[in-house]
Amino acid sequence: MRDFSSDLGFLAGRRAEMTATLKDWCAINSGSRNIDGLDRMRDVLVTAFGELEGDVEIAPAEQHEVVTRDGEVERTPAGGSVRVVKRPQAPIRVLLAGHMDTVFPPDHPFQTHRMIDDDVMNAPGAADMKGGLLVMLRALQCVEQSAVADAIGYEVVINADEEIGSHGSAATIAAAARRAHFACVYEPSLPDGTLAGARKGSGNFSAIFRGRSAHAGREHHLGRNAVVAASRFAERIDRMSGARAGMTVNVARIDGGSPNNVVPESAVVRFNVRVELGDDAAWAEAELNKLIAAANAEDGFGAQLHGGFGRPPKPMTPELLSFFEAVKSVGAELGQEIGWKATGGCCDGNNIAAEGTPVVDTLGVRGANIHSADEYARLDSLEERAKLSALLLMRIASGDIPAPGRVT
Question: Angle at CA 316, nearest 5°, toward 315 and 319?
Fold first, then answer.
């Protein structure tokens, strides 16, 4: 096999520089609904990834529907995606995907970084996934200065709405996945470097209930309490957990209510369903529609189901397992022990896999406590994981490792 040690030297000693860059990126609030902040982050990424000298564009996001607290369906915008294309006619093509948005809005108290020790940085998006974006960028820069760069082309897609389901960027990601032979996504791994293997599918739903308002004392009998109807529905769907192996239903929130002397006329139940198999998703939606139909059959009530399975399940296929084994072999070269395990979490990797593209989707930094103010990234993993991706891509480009996917 070709010796790439000198090429990997490009990444040696970059910890201080990468740490400083990560601090700067985490200081930009890029909550999924903060369009101004996302625009700032996008501009920074356009400049940074522009150094790859590929074709850079902003792919606009499609608007998507949301259900308000009052049960109204509205369309809302999302931030555009950064898209970088380099050598699209190369014999091997890879999609590298990530997201710039975080779960922390501008009014959240978690806005700045804090060093827990010399190796652990607590910051919004440090692990999920601005650290991953930095790993991706440095890995590609390493590949670009190698002798095998011309053998591999790539498309980078960095979306701005992953944390809210990637509804606005779904078409961009799916099209990019179909153009690629395989894909790498830069979600964080576990603190010990363990990767996510098979992933459950995820569906987010809102069930809208309409009743009839009435005076709680004088005409209580004329009212139809939407909150009570919503609560009955919530109890029934909660019992769906375990109805299929690995299926869970999480009733997350009920919006609704009125003053104590008024029968409430509207309510919204918001819930998530996780499944291991695609057939289970179809079964769950059929059961939900039965419950909605039953609610509509009650005198004076109306019910409507909104949402669906935006993240299909990602099973561990033989082809995907081979890709994971390739990553493991590259890790062994670098002295990194790579393992993986199934998870109930999901990401854009689910959607990429649904297009028939093998994908490893936790190639970002080692970190933990994501989606909380305790989120952290291990700084020694910035250089470590950049080397892992760079060597993986160079091994595939050189033919030392067979390219996964649809290479002909």
Answer: 120
Identity of residue 366: R
Nearest to 261 by CA among 220, 224, 210, 228: 220
Phi and psi torsions of 160, nearest 5°: -120, 15
Render pLDDT for 15-62 as a digit per residue (tens, 0 to 9): 999 999 999 999 999 999 999 999 999 999 999 999 999 999 999 999
- Which domains does the chain carry? 5-199+314-398 (3.40.630.10), 201-311 (3.30.70.360)
Written in H, E and C, the secondary structure of 287-348 is HHHHHHHHHHCCCCCEEEEEEEEEECCECCCHHHHHHHHHHHHHHHHCCCCCCEEEECCCCH
C-alpha distances out from residue 244 to 11, 123, 249, 286, 296, Å: 47, 38, 11, 13, 26
User: Would the pTM count as exceeding 0.90?
Assistant: yes
DSSP conformation class of 69: T
Q: 249-300 pLDDT, tens per residue? A: 999 999 999 999 999 999 999 999 999 999 999 999 999 999 999 999 999 9
